[in-house]
Design brief:
By secondary structure, the chain is mostly beta strands. It has two domains: about 180 residues, Immunoglobulin-like (Sandwich), CATH 2.60.40; about 140 residues, Immunoglobulin-like, CATH 2.60.40. About 0% of the residues lie in helices and about 50% in strands.
Length: about 325
Protein backbone atom coordinates (compact mmCIF):
# COMPACT_ATOMS: atom_id res chain seq x y z
CA UNK A 1 0.00 0.00 0.00
CA UNK A 2 1.02 3.63 -0.46
CA UNK A 3 3.45 4.69 2.25
CA UNK A 4 4.63 1.19 3.18
CA UNK A 5 8.44 1.24 3.23
CA UNK A 6 9.33 -2.25 4.47
CA UNK A 7 9.85 -4.60 7.38
CA UNK A 8 12.40 -4.50 10.17
CA UNK A 9 13.32 -8.06 11.19
CA UNK A 10 14.42 -8.75 14.76
CA UNK A 11 15.71 -11.71 16.78
CA UNK A 12 16.49 -11.52 20.47
CA UNK A 13 14.78 -11.12 23.85
CA UNK A 14 11.72 -8.88 24.40
CA UNK A 15 12.70 -5.31 23.68
CA UNK A 16 11.64 -1.77 22.89
CA UNK A 17 12.49 -0.30 19.50
CA UNK A 18 13.29 3.42 19.48
CA UNK A 19 13.06 5.46 16.25
CA UNK A 20 15.37 8.48 16.09
CA UNK A 21 16.67 10.80 13.40
CA UNK A 22 20.30 10.13 12.43
CA UNK A 23 20.50 12.16 9.23
CA UNK A 24 20.29 15.86 8.29
CA UNK A 25 18.15 17.86 10.74
CA UNK A 26 15.45 19.94 9.08
CA UNK A 27 15.61 23.67 9.83
CA UNK A 28 12.78 25.82 11.24
CA UNK A 29 10.36 23.00 11.92
CA UNK A 30 7.23 23.39 14.03
CA UNK A 31 7.05 19.83 15.37
CA UNK A 32 9.49 17.22 16.66
CA UNK A 33 8.68 14.72 13.90
CA UNK A 34 10.56 13.13 10.99
CA UNK A 35 11.50 15.01 7.82
CA UNK A 36 12.58 14.39 4.25
CA UNK A 37 15.27 16.97 3.39
CA UNK A 38 16.20 18.08 -0.11
CA UNK A 39 19.18 16.42 -1.80
CA UNK A 40 20.68 18.42 -4.67
CA UNK A 41 22.42 17.11 -7.78
CA UNK A 42 25.79 17.16 -5.97
CA UNK A 43 24.47 14.94 -3.18
CA UNK A 44 24.38 17.80 -0.66
CA UNK A 45 21.46 18.03 1.74
CA UNK A 46 19.55 21.32 2.01
CA UNK A 47 17.86 21.32 5.40
CA UNK A 48 15.81 24.45 4.60
CA UNK A 49 13.71 22.43 2.12
CA UNK A 50 11.74 19.64 3.76
CA UNK A 51 8.56 17.60 4.03
CA UNK A 52 7.27 16.41 7.40
CA UNK A 53 6.06 12.87 8.14
CA UNK A 54 5.47 10.45 10.98
CA UNK A 55 5.53 6.65 11.18
CA UNK A 56 2.93 3.98 11.79
CA UNK A 57 4.35 0.56 12.75
CA UNK A 58 2.89 -2.85 13.52
CA UNK A 59 4.78 -5.64 15.26
CA UNK A 60 4.10 -9.25 14.21
CA UNK A 61 5.68 -12.65 14.79
CA UNK A 62 6.72 -15.56 12.59
CA UNK A 63 6.37 -18.84 14.47
CA UNK A 64 8.99 -21.56 14.10
CA UNK A 65 6.76 -23.84 12.00
CA UNK A 66 3.18 -24.39 10.93
CA UNK A 67 0.87 -23.47 8.11
CA UNK A 68 -0.34 -20.46 10.09
CA UNK A 69 3.15 -19.31 11.06
CA UNK A 70 2.44 -15.59 10.75
CA UNK A 71 0.97 -14.27 14.00
CA UNK A 72 -0.34 -10.73 14.41
CA UNK A 73 0.13 -10.76 18.19
CA UNK A 74 -0.19 -6.99 18.70
CA UNK A 75 -3.53 -6.62 16.89
CA UNK A 76 -2.94 -2.87 16.72
CA UNK A 77 -0.87 -0.24 14.93
CA UNK A 78 1.51 1.97 16.90
CA UNK A 79 1.90 5.60 15.85
CA UNK A 80 5.47 6.93 16.11
CA UNK A 81 4.40 10.56 15.98
CA UNK A 82 7.64 12.17 17.10
CA UNK A 83 11.37 11.66 16.83
CA UNK A 84 12.46 9.38 19.66
CA UNK A 85 9.16 7.47 19.73
CA UNK A 86 9.10 3.74 20.41
CA UNK A 87 7.20 0.48 20.07
CA UNK A 88 7.27 -2.29 22.66
CA UNK A 89 8.03 -5.87 21.57
CA UNK A 90 6.81 -8.05 24.49
CA UNK A 91 7.98 -11.36 22.99
CA UNK A 92 11.40 -12.72 22.07
CA UNK A 93 12.41 -14.44 18.84
CA UNK A 94 15.20 -16.78 17.77
CA UNK A 95 16.20 -20.42 17.40
CA UNK A 96 17.73 -20.82 20.90
CA UNK A 97 16.56 -23.83 22.92
CA UNK A 98 15.85 -24.29 26.62
CA UNK A 99 17.42 -26.76 29.04
CA UNK A 100 15.57 -29.84 30.29
CA UNK A 101 13.12 -28.85 33.01
CA UNK A 102 12.75 -25.26 31.80
CA UNK A 103 9.59 -23.70 30.37
CA UNK A 104 9.76 -23.49 26.59
CA UNK A 105 7.64 -23.05 23.49
CA UNK A 106 6.43 -25.44 20.83
CA UNK A 107 6.99 -24.60 17.16
CA UNK A 108 3.36 -23.47 16.90
CA UNK A 109 3.59 -21.22 19.99
CA UNK A 110 2.18 -23.30 22.88
CA UNK A 111 4.06 -23.15 26.18
CA UNK A 112 5.13 -26.06 28.42
CA UNK A 113 7.99 -27.69 30.32
CA UNK A 114 10.69 -29.25 28.13
CA UNK A 115 11.53 -32.85 29.11
CA UNK A 116 14.30 -33.43 26.60
CA UNK A 117 12.13 -34.99 23.91
CA UNK A 118 8.79 -33.19 23.79
CA UNK A 119 7.92 -30.22 21.63
CA UNK A 120 8.49 -27.40 24.15
CA UNK A 121 12.11 -26.92 23.15
CA UNK A 122 12.27 -23.27 22.03
CA UNK A 123 13.26 -20.40 24.30
CA UNK A 124 11.12 -17.92 22.38
CA UNK A 125 7.67 -18.33 20.79
CA UNK A 126 8.80 -16.86 17.43
CA UNK A 127 11.52 -17.49 14.89
CA UNK A 128 11.50 -13.80 13.90
CA UNK A 129 9.71 -10.65 14.92
CA UNK A 130 8.95 -8.24 12.13
CA UNK A 131 7.81 -4.64 12.35
CA UNK A 132 5.93 -3.26 9.34
CA UNK A 133 6.77 0.42 8.79
CA UNK A 134 4.53 2.92 6.99
CA UNK A 135 5.29 6.59 6.30
CA UNK A 136 2.42 9.06 6.70
CA UNK A 137 3.12 12.51 5.28
CA UNK A 138 1.60 15.55 6.97
CA UNK A 139 0.64 18.86 5.35
CA UNK A 140 3.69 20.57 6.86
CA UNK A 141 6.51 21.44 4.46
CA UNK A 142 8.98 24.22 3.73
CA UNK A 143 10.33 25.54 0.44
CA UNK A 144 9.76 22.35 -1.52
CA UNK A 145 11.90 22.08 -4.64
CA UNK A 146 11.72 19.72 -7.57
CA UNK A 147 14.22 16.98 -6.84
CA UNK A 148 15.07 14.12 -4.53
CA UNK A 149 14.71 13.95 -0.75
CA UNK A 150 16.26 11.79 1.96
CA UNK A 151 15.67 10.76 5.55
CA UNK A 152 17.80 8.55 7.82
CA UNK A 153 16.12 6.92 10.81
CA UNK A 154 18.04 4.86 13.35
CA UNK A 155 16.01 2.01 14.83
CA UNK A 156 17.61 0.91 18.12
CA UNK A 157 16.63 -2.04 20.31
CA UNK A 158 17.19 -1.81 24.06
CA UNK A 159 19.48 -4.86 23.88
CA UNK A 160 22.00 -2.89 21.81
CA UNK A 161 21.23 -3.89 18.21
CA UNK A 162 20.35 -1.20 15.68
CA UNK A 163 19.47 -0.70 12.04
CA UNK A 164 19.65 2.42 9.87
CA UNK A 165 16.44 2.88 7.88
CA UNK A 166 17.31 5.00 4.83
CA UNK A 167 14.35 6.53 3.02
CA UNK A 168 14.32 8.38 -0.28
CA UNK A 169 11.65 10.16 -2.29
CA UNK A 170 11.16 12.77 -4.97
CA UNK A 171 9.07 15.87 -5.59
CA UNK A 172 8.02 16.74 -9.13
CA UNK A 173 10.11 15.56 -12.07
CA UNK A 174 13.83 16.06 -11.33
CA UNK A 175 16.15 16.70 -14.24
CA UNK A 176 19.03 14.81 -12.56
CA UNK A 177 19.32 11.12 -11.73
CA UNK A 178 18.35 9.71 -8.36
CA UNK A 179 21.24 9.14 -5.92
CA UNK A 180 22.23 5.50 -5.34
CA UNK A 181 20.04 3.54 -2.95
CA UNK A 182 22.08 1.39 -0.57
CA UNK A 183 22.64 0.32 3.05
CA UNK A 184 26.08 0.95 4.51
CA UNK A 185 27.18 0.43 8.09
CA UNK A 186 30.46 0.63 10.02
CA UNK A 187 30.39 -0.77 13.54
CA UNK A 188 33.12 -0.87 16.17
CA UNK A 189 33.11 -4.32 17.77
CA UNK A 190 35.84 -3.91 20.37
CA UNK A 191 35.40 -2.16 23.72
CA UNK A 192 36.63 1.36 24.31
CA UNK A 193 40.02 1.57 26.06
CA UNK A 194 40.87 -2.06 25.37
CA UNK A 195 44.25 -3.10 26.84
CA UNK A 196 47.28 -3.09 24.55
CA UNK A 197 47.93 -6.71 25.54
CA UNK A 198 45.08 -7.73 23.20
CA UNK A 199 46.92 -6.18 20.26
CA UNK A 200 50.54 -6.81 21.27
CA UNK A 201 50.55 -10.46 20.15
CA UNK A 202 48.73 -9.75 16.87
CA UNK A 203 51.72 -9.49 14.55
CA UNK A 204 50.48 -10.62 11.16
CA UNK A 205 47.52 -10.45 8.79
CA UNK A 206 46.59 -14.03 9.67
CA UNK A 207 46.08 -13.37 13.40
CA UNK A 208 45.05 -9.69 13.30
CA UNK A 209 42.68 -8.37 15.98
CA UNK A 210 39.09 -7.76 14.81
CA UNK A 211 38.00 -4.25 15.82
CA UNK A 212 35.00 -3.56 13.59
CA UNK A 213 32.68 -4.66 10.80
CA UNK A 214 31.78 -3.17 7.43
CA UNK A 215 28.50 -3.93 5.66
CA UNK A 216 27.21 -2.80 2.25
CA UNK A 217 23.92 -3.95 0.67
CA UNK A 218 22.18 -2.64 -2.44
CA UNK A 219 19.67 -4.14 -4.85
CA UNK A 220 20.58 -1.56 -7.48
CA UNK A 221 24.16 -0.35 -7.25
CA UNK A 222 27.50 -2.16 -7.12
CA UNK A 223 30.30 -0.47 -5.22
CA UNK A 224 33.94 -0.68 -4.20
CA UNK A 225 35.09 -0.19 -0.60
CA UNK A 226 38.53 1.00 0.43
CA UNK A 227 40.18 2.19 3.64
CA UNK A 228 42.71 4.89 4.46
CA UNK A 229 44.29 6.72 7.39
CA UNK A 230 43.40 10.17 6.04
CA UNK A 231 40.20 11.88 4.93
CA UNK A 232 41.45 12.24 1.34
CA UNK A 233 41.99 8.49 0.97
CA UNK A 234 45.64 8.68 -0.07
CA UNK A 235 47.55 7.39 2.99
CA UNK A 236 47.91 3.98 4.64
CA UNK A 237 50.12 5.21 7.50
CA UNK A 238 48.01 4.11 10.47
CA UNK A 239 49.07 5.55 13.82
CA UNK A 240 47.81 5.22 17.38
CA UNK A 241 48.43 8.54 19.14
CA UNK A 242 48.37 9.54 22.80
CA UNK A 243 47.31 12.94 24.15
CA UNK A 244 50.92 13.62 25.14
CA UNK A 245 52.13 13.25 21.54
CA UNK A 246 53.48 9.71 21.66
CA UNK A 247 52.52 7.44 18.75
CA UNK A 248 53.24 4.06 17.23
CA UNK A 249 52.32 2.43 13.97
CA UNK A 250 49.85 -0.36 13.35
CA UNK A 251 48.66 -2.06 10.17
CA UNK A 252 45.18 -2.65 8.85
CA UNK A 253 43.67 -5.83 7.43
CA UNK A 254 40.25 -6.66 6.04
CA UNK A 255 38.63 -10.08 5.94
CA UNK A 256 35.60 -10.39 3.72
CA UNK A 257 32.94 -12.73 5.10
CA UNK A 258 30.49 -12.30 2.21
CA UNK A 259 31.97 -13.11 -0.23
CA UNK A 260 34.16 -15.29 1.99
CA UNK A 261 37.93 -14.85 1.72
CA UNK A 262 41.07 -14.79 3.84
CA UNK A 263 42.20 -11.56 5.48
CA UNK A 264 44.41 -9.30 3.34
CA UNK A 265 46.67 -6.40 4.24
CA UNK A 266 45.19 -2.98 3.44
CA UNK A 267 47.19 -0.39 1.51
CA UNK A 268 46.01 2.90 0.02
CA UNK A 269 45.40 1.16 -3.30
CA UNK A 270 43.58 -1.94 -1.99
CA UNK A 271 40.00 -2.21 -3.26
CA UNK A 272 37.21 -4.50 -2.09
CA UNK A 273 34.40 -4.85 -4.65
CA UNK A 274 30.88 -5.95 -3.83
CA UNK A 275 29.57 -9.19 -5.29
CA UNK A 276 26.15 -9.95 -6.75
CA UNK A 277 24.52 -12.78 -4.82
CA UNK A 278 21.11 -14.22 -4.01
CA UNK A 279 19.66 -13.40 -0.59
CA UNK A 280 16.83 -15.49 0.86
CA UNK A 281 13.94 -13.68 2.50
CA UNK A 282 13.46 -15.03 6.02
CA UNK A 283 9.73 -14.32 5.71
CA UNK A 284 8.75 -16.26 2.59
CA UNK A 285 12.01 -17.82 1.34
CA UNK A 286 12.00 -15.84 -1.92
CA UNK A 287 15.33 -14.93 -3.55
CA UNK A 288 16.54 -11.38 -4.10
CA UNK A 289 19.60 -10.40 -6.13
CA UNK A 290 21.75 -7.97 -4.17
CA UNK A 291 25.18 -6.36 -4.35
CA UNK A 292 26.87 -7.33 -1.07
CA UNK A 293 30.11 -6.84 0.82
CA UNK A 294 30.41 -7.84 4.47
CA UNK A 295 33.62 -8.18 6.41
CA UNK A 296 35.77 -7.59 9.49
CA UNK A 297 38.18 -4.70 9.97
CA UNK A 298 41.31 -5.88 11.75
CA UNK A 299 44.58 -4.42 13.06
CA UNK A 300 48.02 -5.79 13.88
CA UNK A 301 51.39 -4.44 15.04
CA UNK A 302 55.04 -5.38 14.55
CA UNK A 303 56.45 -7.93 16.98
CA UNK A 304 58.17 -6.71 20.16
CA UNK A 305 56.25 -3.44 20.26
CA UNK A 306 56.37 -1.72 23.68
CA UNK A 307 54.75 1.73 23.58
CA UNK A 308 54.81 4.13 26.53
CA UNK A 309 51.87 3.96 28.91
CA UNK A 310 48.87 6.11 28.07
CA UNK A 311 45.55 6.26 26.23
CA UNK A 312 45.90 6.02 22.44
CA UNK A 313 43.34 6.76 19.73
CA UNK A 314 43.16 6.42 15.97
CA UNK A 315 40.77 7.11 13.09
CA UNK A 316 40.12 4.77 10.16
CA UNK A 317 38.41 6.20 7.10
CA UNK A 318 36.22 4.10 4.83
CA UNK A 319 35.42 5.23 1.28
CA UNK A 320 32.50 3.96 -0.82
CA UNK A 321 32.68 4.37 -4.60
CA UNK A 322 29.60 3.45 -6.62
CA UNK A 323 29.95 1.94 -10.06
CA UNK A 324 28.33 3.76 -12.97
Amino acid sequence: MSGFVGRILYTGPPTTMIFSNSGPVASRTMNNRFYFTYLDSNGTSNTNSWKEFFLVVRAKGMRHEGADAQHDFSQVNTVIANEGGSVSIPYGAGSERVEVGQVGYASSGEQGVYDGSNRYAYLYPYRHIWVDVTVIRTYASRRLKTGYYESHIMVSATGGSSYLLQLAGKYGYPWYSAPPSFYFKLEKTIEDHFPFSLLQTKNSVADALAVGTCTYHSEETAATIRFSSDREGTSDLYLLRSSSGEFFRYYLAFQSTNPSSAAVAVTASTRFPTTLCSIHSVIDGSLHQMHVLEGMIKMYVPAHMYPLAGNYTTTIYCHVTHEE
